[in-house]
Amino acid sequence: MEAIVSLLWGKNTEVLRHYLARRRRIVLAPAGFAGTDAASARAVQEAGGAVQVLEHLVPEGRLDEIRADAARRAHTVAQAVESERWPEFCGVTACSVERVREVLTQRLADKLLPELVLVEALEVARRMHAIELVVVNEDVTSVGKTAALWARARKIPVVHLAHSEILGELYTVHREFHADAMVAFGPRGTEPYRDFGIEEQRLPAIGNPAWDRYDALIAQRAALRSEVFRQLGLSERAPLVLFGTTWSARLSAHDVPDLYERSTRAFLMAVRIVRAAGIELNVVVKDRPANASFGRPLLDRLAGETGIGTDAYRYATNETEALIVASDVVVSADSNLSIEAMIANIPALNLWDERSWTLGPCFSADDGIVQTTSSDLAAAIAGVITNPGFRNALLAGMSARRSRYYVGGGAALRVAEALIGYARAPEPAPSSSAPIYPWQLLSMEQGNDLHEGYIDQPRSELFALFEHQPRCVLDVGCFTGATGQAIKQRYRGAQVLGIELNHAAAQVAAERIDRVFERKIEELDFIAEGIQPGSIDTVILADVLEHIYDPWAMMLQLRPWLTEDAQIVASIPNSRNLLLIMDLVGGRWRYEPAGLLDVTHIRFFTKDEIVRFFYETGFNVAKMASAPDVRLNSVVGPAGAATDIDLGKMVLKGVSPEELVELKTLQFLVLAHPNGRTDGSRMEA
Amino acid sequence: MGPEESLIAWKTQAWTNPQTVAWYAQRMNENKGTNRLKNLVEVELCRRCAAGDRVLDVGIGTGRGSIPLLSKGFHVTGVDSSQAMLDQCRREAGESPIELLRADIASLPFPDASFDTLISLNVLVHFPHWRDVLREWARVVRPDGRLIFDVHSLDHVQAVSRAHGVPTEELLAPERRTELYALRVRAEDLVHEAEALGLSVVAIVPYAAVLGGGNRNFWLDNSRASGYLWERLLSWMALDEPLFQFGRFLEQSLFAHLTTEATGRFMAVLCRTSDPAANRSWLQRNQQINEALAHGLSARVLSDVVPGDFAAWQTELNGHLNDRRNELMLSFLCTAFAPFLDSGCGEDILAQEHFAALRRYVRKWRIDGATRHFVKSWHRTPSVQEALTCAGVSLGAGLEYELTRELLDAVGAFDEGG
Fold first, then answer.
1. Cβ of B374 and A86 within 8 Å?
2. B225: closest chain A residue by CA
3. Span A221-401: which CATH code?
4. Which of A156, A189, B235, B387 is positioned for an S-S bond with A151, CB 3.0–4.6 A?
5. Contact by Cβ (8 Å): A348, A335
6. Of B328, B369, B404, the CB nearest to A357
7. Distance separating alpha carbons of residues A188 and A363, to the nearest angstrom
């Protein structure tokens, strides 16, 4: 299956959505990145993609080995640097060799671990999927850079989508360029990279998807403003001054650690002066979410010290775009907030601090952004608020330069299309074997290829059916073992055995679960494999029964190896699906490469037939859940009452709410237990 | 048409379109970036060095060089190859009397010795056949009259080439494109040519040290005073009056007194009188200053070249530096000359606090550079590299970000204040 590796942040989920809507792909993402939380995972699924958490590709058992590997590597490094003296670095920085050695080796194993896990996960992913693109939101920190370097080593295209516009120099850690291209927010964002010697063609300036919200927000500015004022309890009579805090990254010797406090104090002092002059102000301080723990108390302290009072401002850490659109003037220090103010047509004041130009001025004189020092900030705020001429001149100046920084809304789509352009072209299948009809798949050589329709994802929806902790699990048709791996992660101590005929998948599964048998279940010699009768307490039959010629025989064969309270969980396609009936009524019964009429399906079940199937083979269905067919979401009946469903040539009469659920089901999820009878005797009518 | 002729034709016809001319005129008048400073330096030199009252402005363009002379009582004639430029110049001159006619710069429609002074701003820089042009210009100037014009300096590029170990051809590669062609002349060649034409040097004034744009200062390559970053800083000269005044000080009171190696452009002021001895002594002095400057700027060297009271000059310089932005601008410039600063250069020129600030800035700049280099190189020694490679991926590279922060902390980079 084709896949992309994405280290995009949540704010760029829209880019993934557009990408997947154009190209159905697996998204491989480390935990914490876009697609791995509930909301963004849903967005990915709705767009037709599926997310695979990269770390989950690494078998549980491997983690200890990787940890040991990290420790070994750290140890080797510690020994290797014993003899190093680094005269140049120690000379320039006047730092002792011992101290440098200490820094290099401290917590080294811990630092290496996430990199090693990522590389391992990416290597597993590469064996399972055809990876066409790696996309990152930064390529300088340990994970982003490792992913980018891995992509380069594997000759997979890698694109860096800027997460903020760098305005000054690319100093220390930012003086890097590993991607094939970096998407900048606007032409201005390419300048530091061009100063660094990167060719313009590698720097497409096509926008910031996270700024796509602005068009809609600006269109409803008045309503938004009222809402923001209401929520924050601001006075409708007074203008809103928004201050964005700043911070020191401590990545340049020019950084000053107290910048956060210094700039915030300067702002609060200015507020005091403006208010003392009789100008009413609403003040909102917008802090980084990561600062909230110390930001709030610090601000309260500064508010006390500067004498403006702790109730004289509001504190916010999110909804930046709404705050900007609702404000009358935006104050920040060398920040992207000034650009956002430019987009929203709000005057921006850039607070100039002694540190400000040390890495190059962030703004040009003609950008229309006012540069103020702490001593003239109050006058600038008052001027913007009370002097319409000044305000309009600033807005005109900003407007003239806006296109340097902002290339308009709709960036998510532009970026997604650009990413598709960078993605590696899929390997063209030899034309002779390219199937035209679904049935041609049947005669094609199969079983050694992972890039077929199955998705390497745990079927965790089946876990909800478990009634007891699985201890010894048999996963029939385990594919790459994703489900078994998830079981082992979730239920400590569980043993998972798998049966899989696809060799490539079985190889992957072998690294994840305890044992994998590459043979048909009817040919499996349980005793020879050391499986005791009555030992298997959980059987997974995920999308299996419909593929087997004699599933009844398989159930009978399984029975002796199961415990008395064994739980059989199965997913089975629903043949009484409304769309299937409609097609049949219309005369269509069309085999497809996938879906309800997957050409490889040879047995068909309805809800009723599933219950009968289990009963006749010595099991009782204990629970049955429905996985709805989303194509039928719009079919609804009256609450609590029966209804007729008109299929054109045929009307289904008196369909009860329960029956409607059945008709709208794509797959049934079933839990069954052995019913104590082992003779396969007849079901009572 | 050979390459030189086609270049001449291209440059001559570049400004015949009225719309292009209107754009150019607006650019000349706009107070944007270092425009005002460049204009001021060039026009002041013309006014200061002009002799007599009959002035010919060759390639007058919109008249920015000579319209200011009208109010000083000069009688100005202007020629240009573009009628659109002349029309624009007429509009810019308003009511003031000015004679304008179309002519080629190398074939002037005037009898010999018709003018007291010939000025030509930003014209000769476009043309490769400067020797022919100069002969024609000398013809129309009366004996003892003046020729004032600017060219780019080849001495500058050659000196940087020697100092930085980069071939001149490589440095000049961008200027090989027709649209970016820039005439570069060595002072010695100019003086010899002048002598052959019966001219003598009055002054050769270096400028454009801090003008940015098309006036590249090659000394600043790879320093913090280069690229878009430097242009952004220079842009503030349009709004930041102290920064503008400091730029003016640097141009007029410092670099103007140095040599054609110091800056990428110079204004030549020649006299229509043969004086081989004066030419020889000018070249000698130029050479002496170059030699002295090779050891960096010191009070001793500077007090020799800066005219007037050196203590007053120092006071003025330090006054400019009391403004933090000016101090930072000088800091950026100093990153191009860091080794000089190490050897104490500037210590006897600057006030103690400013010298310390420059040293501190350059030290931090160096710590950043050394840290960057170190985090990238330490893991490339064979034994470490082997331990830190996994599936062909360098794990050491992934450590760089965090190590940078930890090392900067360890070396006490944040302890010293800004």
1. yes
2. A360
3. 3.40.50.2000
4. A156
5. no
6. B328
7. 10
> Closest Cα to residue B9, out of B177, B142, B128, B183?
B128
Partners of residue B373 in chain A, C-beta under 8 Å: 88-89
Please say if the pLDDT value at position A166 is more than 60: yes
Contact call for residues A62 and A511 (beta carbons, < 8 A):
yes
Chain A residue numbers with beta carbons less than 8 Å from the beta carbon of B413 are: 93, 253, 255
Q: How many CB pairs under 8 A join A and B?
A: 193
Residues B3-302, CATH architecture: 3-Layer(aba) Sandwich (3.40)
Looking at CA atoms only, how far is residue A464 from chain B in angstroms?
38
* Portions of chain A given CATH number 3.40.50.150: 460-674
> Mapping DSSP to helix (H, G, I), strand (E, B) and coil, where does residue A392 land?
helix
Instruction: Give me the count of residues in chain A.
Output: 685
d(CA B20, CA B27): 11
Strand B75-80 vs strand B99-102: parallel, antiparallel, or unpaired?
Answer: parallel
- Tell me the CATH number for domain A460-674: 3.40.50.150
User: What's the Cα-to-Cα distance from B52 to each of A476, B72, B115, B403, rounded to whole Å?
Assistant: 105, 12, 8, 68
Of A208-217, A363-372, A428-437, B38-47, the range with the lowest mean pLDDT is A428-437
ipTM summary value? 0.90
Mean pLDDT of the region B322-349: 91
The model's pLDDT over B369-382, given as tens digits with 9 standing for 90+, comes to 999 999 999 999 99
| Residue A249, CA distances (Å) to A21, A272, A294, B366 in order | 37, 29, 16, 18
Q: A2-208 sits in which CATH class?
A: alpha beta
Q: What residues does CATH 3.40.50.2000 cover in chain A?
A: 221-401
Q: Which residue has the tokens 């079901």?
A: A683
Tokens 């801090």, located at residue: B210
**Residue that wins the pLDDT comparison between B5 and A104:** A104
B315: exposed, middle or buried (Cβ count in 10 Å: 0-12, 13-18, 19+): exposed
First to last CA, chain B: 59
B374/A88 CB distance under 8 A: yes
Q: At what angle do helices A38-46 and A13-22 cross, to 10 degrees?
A: 20
Domain boundaries, chain B: 3-302, 351-410
Report DSSP letters for A446-489, one per residue. -SS-S-SS------GGGGGG-SS--SEEEEET-TTSHHHHHHHH
The whole-angstrom separation of Cα B111 and Cα B124 is 21
Say whether B414 and A103 touch across the interface (CB within 8 A).
no
